Structure prediction request, 226 residues.
Amino acid sequence: GDSVTQMEGPVTLSEEAFLTINCTYTATGYPSLFWYVQYPGEGLQLLLKATKADDKGSNKGFEATYRKETTSFHLEKGSVQVSDSAVYFCALNRDDKIIFGKGTRLHILP
Amino acid sequence: EPEVTQTPSHQVTQMGQEVILRCVPISNHLYFYWYRQILGQKVEFLVSFYNNEISEKSEIFDDQFSVERPDGSNFTLKIRSTKLEDSAMYFCASRVSGTGGNQPQHFGDGTRLSIL
Prediction:
């Protein structure tokens, strides 16, 4: 069945560092892809999405490009802030069900 | 910005007892979902609901589980006789109409269910 694999955490970076969180997927066809973020004590918030190959989703300085050749949807940000500390989930939509990766915890040090 | 609201935030229940988790989806949304996350594991789909009936359910969603939309605003998940392995964070989600594959689902903050 469909699945999402993302890099193990935690990831610890200094403020203003460049961020990459790797995500690959296994799926038939071209499902929509998402990144969700969970800040401490809060629920899952949609961060960005891409619905077809080569689409780039972006929000709050974060970007991810839907790469069908490598079945990847890596999350990037050029300069992270302490407020970006959270758990990030890569996900795909298969038949109106969201399939999540395990999540990557990100710590940003001031 | 409108949001999905879940209550309570934390529920502690004795094994074998019934529990009802409550959700108020975003008001113009028509599709509703429950997911759960056992500690340290992935968020898993449980059930989807549209037009007052279940659209799809996973193998986790056995006869002990049920969902209901008792009025125009609430969406509930009931576990009839809780087991220790039901301990998890339960997330409610909703979305607008349209193609299910493209429309994002909006999630609540979750209810942490602890079975003793």
Summary: Residues 29 and 107 of chain B are 12 Å apart (CA to CA). The mean pLDDT of chain B is 93.
